[in-house]
């Protein structure tokens, strides 16, 4: 399968997500292809809102990658039943073997077993196996010898902090403590995330913070609007509860001088409770990444209103805030640890506020009254952001990947 000449290096990317739900994975694949690496990928396909976007990304790659796709839904039924049963049974066995890494991985994500199954069935040699998300880390470590590969682990999130359940958090911490010291390199999507992992477990491999910036080409110069209506935007894969919107919607509700545009897959219950009947709130379907980034040029300000609902939410620099930054939008950000640090370094780019502040409405009112100055500095923000992009940030990854052979 992976026959290669002396100068050709190969990478196997592994994820428990699809292309559509793991944009950081897609960027790394595109980078590897552009720089002449031979690329193989194991990831999932879901029959839901993400399918159309996922198929478009697959079509773009065509035959450039060696692609192994695993169904992520209930069809075919047998693998789904097996993975679900193993997921449940592993929780029981952990009472007997509480530090078993395989069992911990099975309980971290039911797709972890499906990845192990796929890796067992394929052959080849790779210079690197790169694991994205917690369910793919143990499979990469488990099969590194089979593929004669070094292992890179990407920490886009602080996985133990993705839950407030004490038992689930403890399991995640045990798995992380076993896996990270075995990696050959570790990348993290923010400095706070890397700092928190290093509190949990010491590791001596190469570490890099690789921010989740996007390619410059996905953004266009901002449109200079002449409407007196303040154009606010927010996007996510899913529009639902506990995303910060409940704090903002009552403030902008039916204000004639504001429009709020939401991009994503809206949950029915949330729509009925928070959006239906509000004339100045507009829903848009989820868009492919590049199309969404060009669409951002139409707006004045972007909402990065992470509610700090768990530890990971506090430590992550969201895709939203980076996309708004690169598009030149004024950023209205909630005061999570990571977002506060980001805007402290970029004070001209926006404002940090607390969603729990009794004066939240007054603070947002002051932003809305600054429409003229926000628009007059929009282009300056856009061109200033050119110094930070995926093109510059990804050089760190290339240096890591070159360190084999």
What does the secondary structure layout of this molecule look like, with pairings?
Blueprint: E1 10-15, H1 23-34, E2 38-45, H2 51-61, E3 65-71, H3 77-93, H4 101-108, H5 111-121, E4 128-132, H6 137-143, E5 150-155, H7 166-179, E6 185-188, H8 191-200, E7 206-209, E8 230-239, H9 245-252, E9 258-266, H10 268-275, E10 281-284, H11 289-295, E11 301-304, H12 311-315, H13 319-327, E12 330-334, H14 337-345, E13 350-353, H15 360-368, H16 371-376, H17 378-384, H18 390-393, H19 395-401
Parallel strand pairs: 1-2, 1-4, 2-3, 4-5, 5-6, 6-7, 8-9, 8-11, 9-10, 11-12, 12-13
Helix pairs in contact: 3-4, 3-5, 4-7, 5-6
Textual characterization of the structure:
The chain has 405 residues and is of the alpha/beta class. The protein folds into two domains: 10-213 and 391-401, Glycogen Phosphorylase B (Rossmann fold, 3-Layer(aba) Sandwich), CATH 3.40.50.2000; 216-387, Glycogen Phosphorylase B (Rossmann fold, 3-Layer(aba) Sandwich). Helix content is 42%, strand content 19%. The chain contains 19 helices and 13 strands. The protein has helices spanning 23-34, 51-61, 77-93, 101-108, 111-121, 137-143, 166-179, 191-200, 245-252, 268-275, 289-295, 311-315, 319-327, 337-345, 360-368, 371-376, 378-384, 390-393, 395-401; strands at residues 10-15, 38-45, 65-71, 128-132, 150-155, 185-188, 206-209, 230-239, 258-266, 281-284, 301-304, 330-334, 350-353. The strands form two sheets. A seven-stranded parallel β-sheet has the order 3-2-1-4-5-6-7, sandwiched between helices. A six-stranded parallel β-sheet has the order 10-9-8-11-12-13, sandwiched between helices. Strand 2, helix 2 and strand 3 (65-71) form a beta-alpha-beta unit. The mean pLDDT is 94.
